[in-house]
Request: fold
Amino acid sequence: MGATSAEVKMAASIEVPKEIATMLYLTTSRLSDLDKDDFVVAELSGPATHLLKVPGKLIRPGLVFSSALMFKQELEKFVDLAMAIELLHTASLVHDDILDRDSVRRGVDAVHTKYGSDKAILAGDALIAKAIELASPYGGVVVKRAAEAAKNMCAGETLDIERQKSGRPMSLDEYKTIAELKTASLIATSTSVVADYIDDVSRNALYDIGFNIGMSFQIRDDIMNYAGTEALAKKPVGNDSIYSRPNIVSVFEQAGRPSPLKTAIKLNNYYVDGARALLQDVKSDMFERYLDFLSIA
Reply:
């Protein structure tokens, strides 16, 4: 790969306060309890709930609760909304694993590996439907924002597939567009959706903060895949290189940029700094903790 994990210093986890940790535990418990009654038939509930039994980093639900905490809202009121956001994310993973030919997710078989591609596609669709159902009590604006994020993720994945099929190097502008759509859109929704619900004027600032967090998150993930370890990433690394997938470091390599890994780290920290600048007007200790996690030395 041309780099070692020693060149990249990253935080391994995000420290969250007890009240958010409690809500994340409740969210994962409720997600893991989804069953046949939620997905109509057992043949669908198995693949639909497969990844819900092994939670990921819970970045997006954590951001929902962080926003609620900033607004001094009752956190438990937003558990269903946090679940909805995580279900949209999980649905994208189920479909992405089919498209990317990944056989493992979160240390277990990918849904298509265990249940076949046909059921995995339907499971992803069902997760999106369940997300809409859970978001609907929060009102039309919230559902609209969630739907827009889901639509953006589909658009980003489409561009990603088309670019990979073309066989030509990806430009930085193309990379950014795909990252904005695939990753930053849902994370920006996570930081701003509580403001949408309570109709707070800081909604746009919170969306912009989430956008910067999302861009950094994708770039950080690429750097981890390129130069990290499985112990730190908590998932297989190096697949981008194996399958010739677009990765921010390879984008800079193919463009002939000197020190592509350092350039990628600089870009990551550019988005972190952008979010921090916006936090001068929107005060949130929890968002600061996320930015500390995303920052790379």
